[in-house]
Design brief:
The complex is a heteropentamer, with one copy of chain A, one copy of chain B, one copy of chain C and two copies of chain D. Chain B is built from 15 helices and four strands. In chain B, a hairpin with a 6-residue loop joins strand 3 and strand 4. Chain B folds into two domains: 106 residues, no CATH class; 240 residues, MetI-like (MetI-like fold, Orthogonal Bundle), CATH 1.10.3720.10. By secondary structure, chain B is an all-alpha fold. Chain C folds into two domains: 179 residues; 213 residues, MetI-like (MetI-like fold, Orthogonal Bundle). In chain C, 66% of the residues lie in helices and 4% in strands. Chain C is built from 19 helices and ten strands. In chain C, helix 1 packs antiparallel against helix 7, helix 7 packs across helix 8 and helix 11 crosses helix 13. Chain C is globular and about 90 Å long. Chain C starts with 15 loop residues before the first helix and ends with a helix. Helix content of chain D is 41%, strand content 22%. Chain D is globular and about 65 Å long. The relative contact order of chain D is 0.17. Classes of the chains: A alpha/beta, B mainly alpha, C mainly alpha, D alpha/beta. Chains in contact: A-B, A-C, B-C, B-D, C-D, C-E, D-E. Chains C and E meet through helix 14 and helix 15 of C and helix 5, helix 6 and helix 10 of E. The complex binds adenosine-5'-triphosphate (2 copies), magnesium ion (2 copies) and phosphate ion. Chains D, E: This is Phosphate transport system ATP-binding protein. Chains D, E: Keywords: ATP-binding, Cell membrane, Membrane, Nucleotide-binding, Transport. Chains D, E: GO terms for molecular function: ATP binding; ATP hydrolysis activity; phosphate transmembrane transporter activity. Chains D, E: One of its GO terms (cellular component) is membrane.
């Protein structure tokens, strides 16, 4: 096991301490294959993929790695000043955050800040990469904002026999424009108009009815193979393989899209909710007469589950043949994913990033799914 | 002298090699010979094992280490010879492996994209005949034309920047600058080569691209012009240092000869030094072109990432995709044909740059033999 | 014959005409600076400068410069000014004058007169041709001043009359829309005019003839060198200024504030940006794992490439007969040296990854960079060994010392400075490479300090072959260039952790620059030191 | 300017520059400070005059206080052991030392009474008037004709090139004459007249050296400096060059460095002997130097006791 | 092996190798085939004997049928114009020519009667016994001590290095003595004894050359070959080297190439004159060669008529 902290790291202030895992019962082999049947593998848990899911899983990861104590109050637990949301539902456990969630899958608590039972890391790319990586065994968790069936062109059966689909939240994929477009009075578009823009039928804002704004449209897209792109083609253009000849530029990650929208005039883009801001403004979309607005108080909003661009956010794990009773998990994967599947996780990681929390029913079924390996009852905390 | 055919010459060369080996065997102590053979054989076995992704690779490798250790202590002369020889061979091997692996990976898509001319099906031809790249919506096409266009555009701009500026700077360094100035400028140029391309890319993406889009009123940001300028600045040090070598390899006696008849320094440079070093200087520019073609990160973060020809073709104010940025952008989620197509891009890059490198070396070699043989 | 072209051996004192030419050179320098300032928006085109609208001022200066230059040439022609002109200005000057006039002629014909592309080409050829002839045919003093003076005056007049004002715009009318704006055209045109004016004025200052051309050329060449150095300086200063706040965020100095190193010693400084990772509970975030990752990458690449490269260099220089084989290896290594880094990445992706547990790993990154470093080490080592004088080898051989002993005790030590310098410079290059590790190693973007890679501590013994394993090597980690790339593409998700994402990014760029440039500085310094030492011995 | 005047100004320089001469005297033997050579009298005018010339390469004092007058239309030989500064002295006569960054020159050199180490000197003109031929032949990698015509072309005496041809101003007749005259003067015309367009690098060593002399002559110099012009040549070629120098002396002022005593004795009118340390030890009529040297060291050197 | 025996074997070689000698005779003038020098008689034994030695560089026949005996404990000078093959001959005496790829040697060279051009000859041993000093001083860029101890160390005569030190086997006392002895023999001890650990490149040229001689002596040679050892040195250093050579001849067999006639006359016991074309033209007592050369060309050469 790695006593970590080469160079100058070490127990410096700020809780960024060096020690990583205790390697109880670990044999060097397991650490390489990334899976182990005896459930006590404490090697680094790796995740990779969707930039949409990234905020959720990365925030989760940094909470996990911090292993904050229950007396913290700000990130975990409760004290006289504050209490984390969902604390009561969890039964106010007297354990550090990662210790608590890991112990439910048989890990020994470390009882040390910044030293979780096993460390986690999240790579940023996009859904296609995440799905590829998890099926190739390159990482433990593949983040994706589109269904793996669409990402990798799989059949439903193939997907079910290869990976476990863990849905941790939902995104109401907004269509955003740059602030000059908003200033020109364009606050809503029809689905048809968006489609026409992206299929090169409308190239200037003044071609849209009732708009007097002579500005070429800068149609920004996401990388082919990203979940956002796949979902947009599927839900907006009608087909996961629909043509998008109107795209002027494509960016690998949501953040670049946000930056490009804020840096340029006449821009339009589709992205994930977490990345909207004052200069990256969502517009209302009119689908067949129903206007879905970005405002949470409106009648129909882009946060609604019937908003056509609404989509699930997935963390896929691979079903490994040498782990028949794991149900597609090893203990680390299950322990980490389980952290998102309760009110605490949904509030902090999902809502906190401007995404839509899962309805209770979905939450329950997800929890049942990860229980396969649990040493304690998960469904009722 | 009688004309000697090529095959005869080859046979003679081969014969010489055999003779060399025989001499070595003859001159070497048998014990050393055994050790050396064990070293060579075990290393070969380890290499084969590695290629075959075998878990047993470690065994021959251990034998190799042990034999080397023993040989080092007991027969240092022979062991050193064999070790350095294997190291040389490994270098060649790496080049060979690169060729084999990137070519091998690119085969399937070449078959997919074959086109028929005059009744003959030529693999991969369609990638160069039509200009449509679409990896998602049918018809799925992996054309290299847009990326080749992009690479050419970037390279042309980069060469226009790096060529004249580089040659002028090389002239300055080798002929004009006083020692003190050279002591500062030369390391400066070298440091320029050291600035990581991602830093250029970062500045390009956050500062230059928005500025350019604003200046030229383009729709959105990312232009071949500015990628080319940035890449040109990156290629500049290569041009400067190679051209400077060429210029200073012109014998001082030639330059003095010219000055002694009462010409100005500038006349000497243009009439004697530059013509004499012409091939070396062109080799420098060629190598700069090679650098520009292979530059990746700045292009990746600055370009638009939509493989498409600009409209019109000379529109440098738009920058779509180059061969390098295509790979860097798509390697992640690509699979199947698309992945193979990236390897095709790699092959094009590799072959082009290799040809340029060999061409530049040939030119330089000719110049040196001309100057060396003549003067 | 000698008397025929006799000119003065000693130049006279500075005269009024010299002063005029010098003023013209100074004027061009001023214009050059103004143009650069306008280009970088240090001077606003819509604003005013010394009480005049900027464009008007530029126009006025251009007209003045053009007039001076042309007047000087004409003055020389009629004999008011004592000069030494050639019969003609020459081909280069003629082309030099023809190009801008071609552009102007083409632009005016196609746009102002609306004659279209064909008309533009014809107009360009006419204007360019006239300028060419006007330069080539008359004596050098007129040829190299009047057409250029006219060019400057024309451009100046266009600015003065407001034909091209701050709001001027030329839509190129392309499918992918682009326009030439005054913001761009005015500074660029001024810049080129300043260069032309400076060139002509310098020629005049040198009194034309061989000396004049020499002057003219030197002005341009010096300017070029200066610009390159200035560019480098600005680039670095820019990154430093932007990056420093982020780098110094939360710095503390004092006894006992720093982290412990080597067990017990406490550093007296605490620079969180380079001593921390990213973690929820940190007060200040940092990039320690990426720094350490970069260091290990470099160490691995050096351990792989240096023995291999030096060994091969030894064989090629000392053992192999110079011939086909060495030539082939030379071609191959030079080819490898120019191979694009992304191709190395592809190769590592296809060759190494399947062989190291089928995942991106530190080891794969090390080897990929090692492949890149190898040709450079080989080439520089070879050069260093070739430059070891044969006398050393002869002397050693004459003492009856065997070949390898000679290599080890004489050749290698003598070649060491060259090898070391080459390796350090090579390391500087690979340390900043992103493309290859993108495909072979890229790890997380915001890595906690606890996940800093620890190669030494990672070794462990196992029960099955190969009996020793190092999971740290087989795991992806972060490295500075990759981290910067990831920061460019990401940024959100820093979340509440990083208060100033932009500062964090620039600080990362600064650290990367510092790491890479310090390799270069060490390399260049080492070379300087070794050279200096050789000189003195 | 007459000879006597120059001598006067020289003495003035000496006096004013007193610390220099003090320093010079302190560490030296009597023999070395002997100034017999300064008094060297010759007929005719002095073409070039060096006064108190010091040359430094960085900290290295390569030439120490050399004063020497070079008479017009004669051959002056410079001899001395290797490294004694002969080439350095020669190169300071047409300021070729300017090309060496480390080199610094103190003192004065005059050409026809004009100081060449002063601001505003026209180096181009100086080098046209004081030509130079180097130790190893250094023709340009161009045709024989281009080699000869190179200087005049660059000086604009004859025009060539595309543009001149287009404008009908290249006077090739003039060029032909110039090339022929230079080659004839250099005794090379007969050997190369049929292949003026061949590359000069194809000539033999001796021919190349004569070509370089012709190239030097073509710009019409007054003084020709030659630095061991025959040392890289075989005896036959050497003989030709020696003959050539002999004939050149009728029209030009020739200064030649040689390490070959016999050669110096054969071809020169006066000889200057430099000895290690950058000092001019003796200067006078060649016959006198070789038959009756004033100092023991010069005698030792000339008779081959060392060097 | 006695002198007479060698001469016999030499004549045998001549006879067997008949086409070679035939070829040699055909194209030559009478004077050149004169073999007076072969008969050169000397007292004492021959240390080295070359018989019918031909050396080729590729197609270039650089040394033509040279036969020559080198007497023990004396100084043999080789003189001749540049390129005549002196160095080539010298280098074939310790097979340094093996290091030049293009070089091919025919004929025989014997050291104490043992053929050195035969299979299985131990080059290391040969070069230990036949040492060599080069034209320009070439000390290694190491300390003075390391330079001297270099050979013995590599031959394992004295042990150094970490391992030896750990095992207590580096006998530095022995090394010190060896260094001192060699430096004293080379007349350098007094000048450098206080700075043995300084870098050898810091010495003056003459000191460097003596250091090289000391380095050569340290491995205990019997023959010392010197290729123009003083040509790069100033007169004072040259004088020191000459003295040194004189004293070395008491114990060692010295063969020296020089282009300086006076030097050859001063220091050598016998002189061999090579002339262009790689031929040995005359060989005999130095006094006799210089005072009464047998052939006209040798006389011309010695008196400086050419070369
Ligand atoms: N470019 C240079 N830089 C530094 N020192 C120099 C340079 N050229 C010559 N010297 C030094 O100046 C001194 C005189 O050199 P110079 O070449 O004038 O001698 P020389 O008499 O011509 O010798 P030779 O007969 O070998 O040509 C020497 O000590 C030499 O080392
Ligand atoms: N390494 C070599 N390769 C090819 N030819 C060579 C080589 N060394 C010498 N030669 C040729 O062999 C001939 C004899 O050369 P060598 O060096 O023996 O002459 P030398 O008498 O020592 O002359 P010098 O007095 O100039 O040293 C010359 O023609 C020379 O060009
Ligand atoms: Mg000289
Ligand atoms: Mg020699
Ligand atoms: O979620 P994505 O980053 O794949 O769009």
């Amino acid at each position: 096991g790695g006593q970590s902290g080469g160079g100058g790291s070490g127990g410096e202030s700020g809780g960024d301490s060096g020690a990583t895992a205790t390697d109880s019962g670990m044999d060097g082999e397991g650490s390489q294959s990334g899976s182990s049947s005896d459930g006590q593998n404490a090697s680094l848990l790796t995740a990779e993929g969707s930039s949409t899911v990234y905020p959720i899983s990365n925030t989760g990861s940094s909470y996990w790695n911090s292993n904050a104590p229950p007396s913290d109050g700000e990130y975990w637990g409760s004290n006289s000043e504050s209490t984390v949301p969902g604390w009561e539902q969890l039964g106010e456990p007297d354990m550090l955050i990662a210790d608590y969630f890991a112990s439910k899958f048989g890990f020994e608590p470390t009882e040390q800040r910044s030293s979780p039972p096993f460390p986690t890391t999240v790579g940023l790319s996009h859904s296609g990469t995440g799905c590829e990586a998890v099926t190739d065994g390159l990482v433990d968790i593949g983040n994706s904002s589109g269904p793996i069936t669409a990402e990798l062109d799989w059949s439903e059966e193939q997907a079910q026999s290869t990976v476990v689909d863990n849905v941790v939240g939902r995104d109401g994929q907004p269509v955003v424009v740059s602030s000059d477009v908003i200033d020109a009075g364009i606050t809503e578009l029809t689905g048809e108009q968006v489609r026409a823009i992206y299929q090169d039928e409308i190239t200037n804002w003044n071609q849209i009815e009732g708009v007097d704004y002579d500005q070429e449209i800068y149609a920004i897209g996401r990388a082919e193979g990203s979940g956002t792109d796949t979902a947009f083609r599927l839900n907006m253009l009608g087909d996961a393989n629909a043509s998008m000849s109107g795209v002027d530029t494509r960016f690998g990650q949501n953040q670049q899209v946000a930056q490009a929208v804020s840096q340029n005039e006449g821009a339009i883009a589709y992205m994930a909710l977490a990345f909207t801001s004052e200069s990256v403004v969502p517009v209302g979309i009119d689908f067949d007469g129903t206007l879905y607005e970005p405002d949470r108080d409106a009648e129909h909003t882009i946060f609604d589950s019937d908003y056509p661009l609404n989509r699930d956010l997935h963390m896929y794990t691979l079903i490994e043949e040498d782990n028949p009773d794991g149900g597609g998990y090893d203990a680390r994967e299950a322990a980490f994913i389980n952290m998102f599947l309760n009110e605490f996780g949904q509030t902090i990681f999902v809502e906190g990033n401007n995404y839509i929390p899962l309805p209770t029913s979905d939450l329950r079924s997800m929890k049942e799914q990860v229980s396969a390996l649990a040493t304690e009852d998960l469904v009722m905390p | 002298m009688e004309p000697v055919t090529r095959s005869e010459r080859l046979t003679a060369a081969a014969g010489k090699q055999v003779q060399c080996v025989r001499d070595f065997v003859h001159d070497t102590d048998p014990a050393a010979l055994v050790v050396v053979t064990v070293i060579a054989v075990s290393l070969l076995a380890a290499f084969v094992g590695f290629l075959a992704v075998s878990n047993l690779t470690i065994l021959p490798f251990a034998v190799f280490l042990a034999a080397t250790g023993y040989g080092w202590v007991r027969h240092q002369e022979e062991t050193a010879l064999v070790l350095t020889l294997t190291m040389t061979v490994s270098t060649l091997l790496i080049l060979g492996l690169i060729i084999v692996f990137i070519f091998r990976e690119s085969v399937p898509v070449l078959q997919y994209e074959s086109a028929t001319v005059f009744g003959v099906s030529v693999p991969g031809l369609r990638m160069f005949l039509q200009s449509n790249w679409d990896a998602v919506s049918p018809p799925i096409r992996y054309s290299m034309v847009p990326m080749i266009h992009g690479t050419v555009m970037v390279t042309v701009v980069a060469t226009a920047v790096a060529g004249p500026l580089g040659v002028a700077a090389a002239l300055f360094l080798s002929e004009i600058a006083p020692d003190v100035v050279r002591e500062f400028v030369k390391p400066g140029v070298e440091i320029l080569a050291g600035i990581p391309s991602i830093v250029y890319g970062f500045i390009g993406f956050t500062i230059l691209s928005p500025w350019a889009s604003d200046q030229f009123r383009t729709t959105g940001q990312g232009s071949y012009l500015f990628v080319g300028i940035v890449v040109g600045l990156m290629a500049l040090p290569t041009v400067v240092s190679v051209a400077e070598d060429a210029l200073s390899s012109v014998p001082e006696s030639m330059k003095s000869g010219s000055l002694a008849v009462g010409t100005t320094d500038w006349q000497t440079m243009t009439s004697i030094t530059l013509p004499a070093a012409f091939s070396g200087v062109s080799a420098a520019v060629l190598l700069g072109v090679g650098r520009a073609i292979g530059e990746t990160m700045a292009a990746t973060v600055m370009l638009r990432g939509v493989p498409r020809l600009t409209d019109p073709l000379v529109n440098v104010f738009y920058g779509q995709e180059t061969l390098t940025s295509l790979i860097a952008r798509n390697y992640g989620e690509a699979d199947g044909f698309q992945m193979d197509a990236l390897f095709v891009a790699g092959v094009i890059l590799f072959v082009t740059v290799l040809v340029i490198s060999i061409g530049a070396q040939y030119i330089e070699w000719r110049m040196r033999s001309k100057l060396g043989g003549g003067a | 014959m000698a008397g025929a072209t006799q000119s003065r051996l000693v130049e006279g004192d500075t005269t009024l005409t010299d002063a005029v030419a010098a003023v013209a050179v100074g004027l061009s320098a001023t214009l050059f600076v103004l143009a650069v300032a306008a280009m970088f928006e240090r001077v606003s085109l819509t604003g005013t400068l010394v009480g005049l609208p900027t464009v008007t001022l530029l126009g006025g200066l251009l007209v003045a410069l053009g007039g001076t230059v042309a007047a000087f040439g004409l003055g020389s022609w009629v004999g008011y000014v004592e000069t030494d002109p050639d019969a003609t200005a020459g081909l280069i000057a003629s082309f030099g004058a023809a190009v801008p006039w071609f552009v102007i002629g083409g632009g005016v014909a196609s746009q102002t007169f609306g004659l279209g592309t064909a008309g533009g080409v014809v107009g360009g050829i006419v204007a360019g041709g006239v300028a060419f002839a006007a330069t080539a045919v008359p004596r050098e003093d007129v040829g190299s001043t009047v057409p250029l003076g006219a060019l400057l005056a024309f451009v100046g007049a266009v600015f003065l009359t407001g034909t091209i004002g701050p709001d001027w715009l030329w839509d190129l009318g392309w499918e992918q829309q682009a326009s030439i704006t005054a913001e761009f055209l005015v500074p660029v045109a001024t810049l080129f005019c300043a260069l032309y004016g400076g060139w002509a004025a310098a020629k005049a200052y040198g009194r034309f003839g061989a000396r004049g051309r020499h002057m003219g050329a030197y002005v341009l060449v010096y300017l070029n060198a200066l610009s390159i150095v200035a560019f480098l300086f600005i680039l670095i200063a820019f990154v430093v200024v932007r990056g420093l706040p982020g780098l110094l965020h939360g710095v503390r100095v004092g006894a006992g504030v720093g982290p412990q190193v080597f067990g017990s010693v406490q550093l007296p400084v605490y620079v969180p940006f380079v001593m921390n990772g990213v973690a929820l509970l940190n007060d200040f975030q940092g990039v320690l794992p990426a720094i350490v990752g970069t260091i290990w990458l470099v160490v691995g690449a050096v351990l792989f490439a240096v023995p291999l490269g030096v060994g091969a260099a030894i064989f090629l220089t000392e053992y192999a007969e110079r011939g086909r084989f060495t030539q082939a290896v030379e071609v191959a290594t030079n080819g490898l040296w120019s191979t694009p880094s992304i191709v190395f990445g592809l190769f590592g992706f296809a060759f190494l990854i399947p062989r190291f547990g089928n995942r991106k790993s530190l080891l794969a990154g090390m080897l990929t960079l090692g492949f890149m470093l190898l040709p450079l080490v080989l080439i520089t080592s070879r050069e260093a060994m070739l430059s070891v004088p044969d006398e050393y080898r002869d002397a050693s051989a004459a003492l009856g010392v065997k070949k390898w002993q000679t290599i080890r005790s004489v050749v290698l030590p003598a070649a060491l400075p060259g090898v070391i310098t080459g390796v350090i410079l090579g390391v500087g290059r690979i340390a900043g490479e992103t493309a290859p590790i993108l495909l072979t190693m890229a790890g997380g973007t915001f890595v906690p300090g606890g996940q800093t890679v620890d190669v030494i501590g990672g070794f462990e013994f196992t029960g099955s072959p190969p009996f020793v394993a190092n999971p740290e090597l087989l795991q992806a980690t972060s490295a500075l260039p990759y981290q910067l790339y990831a920061l460019i593409t990401a940024g959100v998700g820093l979340g509440s952790n990083v208060s100033d994402p932009d500062g964090f990014r620039w600080a990362t760029a600064l650290i990367l620059l510092l790491v890479v440039l310090s390799f270069y500085a060490i390399g260049i310094g080492a070379r300087y030191y070794f050279r200096q030492r050789l000189k003195h011995e | 300017m007459s000879n006597s005047q120059q001598t006067t100004s020289q003495h003035q320089t000496r006096t004013t520059d007193s610390d220099q001469s003090l320093e010079t005297t302190s560490g030296e033997t009597v023999e070395e400070t002997e100034e017999a050579w300064v008094e060297y009298d010759f007929q005719g005018d002095a073409k070039m005059v060096a006064e108190d010339l010091d040359v430094y390469y960085g900290d290295d004092h390569a030439l120490k206080g050399v004063s020497m007058e070079i008479p017009e239309e004669s051959v002056t030989a410079l001899v001395g052991p290797s490294g004694c500064g002969k080439s350095t002295y020669l190169r300071s006569l047409n300021r070729m030392n300017d090309r060496i960054d480390a080199a610094r020159v103190d003192g004065s050199v005059q050409l026809d009474g004009k100081e060449i180490y002063q601001d505003g000197i026209n180096l181009v003109e100086l080098r046209k008037r004081v030509g130079m031929v180097f130790q190893s032949p250094n023709p340009f990698p161009k045709s024989i004709r281009d080699n000869i015509a190179y200087g005049p072309r660059k000086h604009g005496d004859i025009e060539t090139g595309l543009l001149a041809r287009m404008l009908g101003r290249d006077d090739s007749e003039e060029e032909r004459e110039l090339v022929e005259r230079a080659l004839k003067q250099a005794a090379l015309w007969d050997e190369v007249q049929d292949r003026l367009d061949d590359n000069a690098l194809g000539l033999s060593g001796g021919q190349q050296q004569r070509l370089c002399i012709a190239r030097c002559l073509s710009v019409g110099p007054e003084v020709i400096l030659m630095d061991e012009p025959a040392s890289a040549l075989d005896p036959i070629a050497t003989a030709k060059i020696e003959d050539l120098i002999d004939s050149l002396a009728e029209e030009y002022t020739v200064v030649i460095v040689t390490h070959n005593m016999q050669q110096a004795a054969r071809i020169s009118d006066q000889t200057a002997v430099f000895l290690t340390g950058g000092k001019l030890v003796e200067y006078g009529d060649t016959d006198q130097i070789f038959e009756n040297p004033q100092s023991q060291r010069v005698e030792d050197y000339i008779t081959g006791k060392f060097g």
